[in-house]
Inverse folding.
């Protein structure tokens, strides 16, 4: 790590290193100044090259977005990495993992769970503001950092393929959830019809709109900026909105094994929708707005399929801490999907 830090023109001896964050993809560290001064601290992050197989695409996407926002929305705070001494966006270690450096924004916090309507409104507004500001950008300049990330048809096919390869034991244990997914195939058909109709316009979207990807002011609790921009790429608005519904509206995370705690919080749903439309009501077409109720169901079903497929594949993608954890995650998401289908 000292070599990486030096690559950005910093002296490792000036900083203490603390691992931070709850993400499962990257490794993130705070470089805090050992001696208090006016000079800033930093965030150092190792990008997971096994998930983002073409990390240079991340860098180029963020550069296009930064340059556009700096020119057209100079007051918008967009968190961009600090170039290395040789002007590179990322520095590679001897294992081929890319590292990047960000300024540390003081007096800010992230939260992992939505506790009230005000948080839901503010976070949704923050994500939507980014989409609105980038609405006129040349989308052709951007590439997918994770191809077909929110493609429901492809995710369902991955589930089908995993089912065909799965051991008899795992198929038997997952039998109930397999049946529910197969019975929910109409969601795939709805998605395919929606895309084929051309009623949705591709935009540059965040694509990972969990609330811990918003940086809040620690005192006012106002949004400072959107973070974790690795999946900033072409997508449909239902991807962002749907992931917010999936992760904001239930009071518990996808890790909860007591499914009785999974409920639909209408006040949170209404607040996030109000916050989202406060920025995009005049940007989205009426046809797009008609797809709003589908968004949360679609992304929740995607995650159920991904967790179940990983279980059937032998738990090779998502990190687990106990046997059957991916099966629990799949059941959690399918339970929430039923709540959404009943309440929206």
């Amino acid at each position: 790590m000292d070599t990486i830090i030096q690559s950005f023109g910093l002296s490792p001896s000036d900083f203490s290193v603390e691992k931070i964050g709850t993400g499962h993809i990257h490794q993130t560290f705070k470089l805090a100044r050992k001696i208090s001064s006016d000079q800033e601290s930093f965030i150092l992050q190792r990008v997971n090259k096994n998930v983002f197989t073409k990390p240079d695409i991340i860098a180029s996407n963020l550069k296009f977005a930064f340059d556009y926002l700096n020119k057209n929305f100079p007051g918008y705070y967009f968190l961009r990495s600090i170039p290395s001494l040789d002007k590179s966006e990322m520095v590679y270690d001897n294992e081929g993992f890319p590292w990047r450096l960000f300024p540390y924004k003081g007096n800010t916090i992230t939260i992992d769970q939505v506790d009230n309507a005000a948080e839901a409104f503010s976070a949704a507004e923050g994500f939507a503001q980014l989409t609105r500001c980038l609405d006129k950008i040349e989308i052709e300049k951007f590439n997918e950092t994770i191809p077909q990330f929110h493609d429901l048809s492809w995710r369902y096919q991955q589930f089908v393929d995993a089912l065909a390869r799965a051991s008899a034991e795992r198929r038997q244990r997952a039998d109930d959830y397999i049946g529910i997914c197969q019975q929910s195939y109409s969601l795939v058909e709805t998605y395919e019809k929606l895309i084929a109709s051309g009623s949705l316009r591709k935009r540059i979207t965040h694509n990972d709109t969990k609330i811990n990807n918003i940086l809040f002011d620690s005192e006012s609790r106002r949004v400072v900026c959107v973070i974790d921009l690795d999946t900033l790429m072409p997508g449909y608005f239902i991807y962002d909105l749907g992931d917010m519904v999936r992760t904001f509206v239930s009071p518990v995370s996808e890790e909860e094994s007591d499914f009785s705690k999974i409920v639909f919080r209408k006040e949170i749903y209404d607040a996030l929708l109000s916050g989202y439309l406060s920025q995009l009501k005049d940007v989205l077409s009426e046809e797009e707005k008609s797809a709003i109720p589908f968004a949360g169901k679609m992304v929740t079903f995607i995650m159920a399929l991904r967790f179940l497929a990983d279980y059937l594949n032998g738990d090779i993608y998502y990190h687990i801490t106990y046997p059957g954890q991916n099966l629990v995650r799949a059941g959690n998401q399918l339970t929430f999907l039923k709540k959404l289908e009943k309440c929206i």
